[in-house]
Amino acid sequence: MAMIKLSEQGAVGPRRGSVACISTAGLHRMAYQEWGDPQNTDVVICVHGLTRVSEDFQDLAQALSDRFRVVCPDVVGRGRSSWLKNPTLYGIPQYTADMVTLIARLNVDRVKWVGTSMGGLIGMSLAALEQSPLERLVLNDVGAVLSGAALGRIAAYVGVKTEFDSYAQASAFLRMVFASFGPHSEAQWRQLIDPVVVVQPDGRTRLHYDPAIAEPFRQAYGAQAAAGQTPEDLSMWPLYDLVRCPTLLLRGADSDLLTRDVAQQMAARGPKPSVIEFAGIGHAPSLMHADQISVIRDFLLHTDADER
């Protein structure tokens, strides 16, 4: 059983666990962290973006843990989770299947979902299923159309450079890559960087993900990006229109992945979400700031009766 530890502030820290998941290449383990009462059946699952990890939601999870059991997985290939033997399996279908296994482990029928970028796509895929376990969905800077220009930008860096001579070099690289997250204090930057950097005995560092997660992404968009061409936008309207649970759409006002036009179209169809923008932020809001946390908490605390 995972141990409960105390943080430096003396509060109860996250419990850690893992669950065995299956793919066509065999079994792998998906690690997760959780906050709040482990007996609470009101569960929020928070899922990170393409190259991020479960620690991204530490502040949000702590803010929600008085009312919810908050579970934050490391998607396979990231953080403490296994790396897949077959890199072509890195994609939304496998990630969605793994999350169904996680929900079964939690022994609940219904969950609320907060997903940043890739985590939002996984949530949207789950929410579109018949008999979906999702009762509320927060999409953080991702939606029914993904900008081809942004996909090309991401394809240009994911998995290309994952080893560095020092922590300082890795930190500088990550601050550049994630500059679009918006302004953060030095302490917040350390909170964003430290969990995704592994310092090795010789002082060299590597990023906390399997470089092969980029392989399907590169196959789809890398050649166009390398040739200086802008990939086509990726439309997922048929999937989005199947979502029926109450949905909140968050957007960085300067996001290049989720355009304002697409967000406005999303507000008028499918689950017709409320749309909230955060000024001075691109892709994607880090969900570390009080105003971002507040809107998510308010949405998750609403009930169906409140909206009737």
Provide the helix percentage: 25-40%
Low-confidence runs of at least 5 consecutive residues: 1-11
- CATH class category of the domain at 19-147 and 235-307: Alpha Beta
Coarse morphology:
globular
- Helix vs. strand class: alpha/beta
* CATH superfamily label of the domain at 19-147 and 235-307: Alpha/Beta hydrolase fold, catalytic domain
What is the annotated CATH architecture of the domain at 19-147 and 235-307? 3-Layer(aba) Sandwich
Main β sheet profile: 8 strands, mixed
CATH topology of the domain at 19-147 and 235-307: Rossmann fold
Strand content: 15-25%
Written description of the protein model:
The protein is of the alpha/beta class. The protein has a domain at 19-147 and 235-307: Alpha/Beta hydrolase fold, catalytic domain (Rossmann fold), CATH 3.40.50. The protein is built from eleven helices and 13 strands. Strands 1-2-4-3-5-6-12-13 form an eight-stranded mixed β-sheet, with helices on both faces. Strands 8-10-9 form a three-stranded antiparallel β-sheet. The termini are far apart.
Q: Would you kindly provide a brief summary of this structure?
A:
With 308 residues, this protein is an alpha/beta fold. The chain has helices at residues 58-64, 92-106, 118-127, 148-157, 167-177, 186-193, 214-226, 237-240, 260-267, 290-301, 304-307, and strands at residues 15-23, 26-35, 43-47, 69-73, 111-116, 134-140, 145-146, 163-164, 197-199, 205-207, 234-235, 247-252, 274-278.
Structural descriptors:
alpha/beta; globular; Rossmann fold; 11 helices
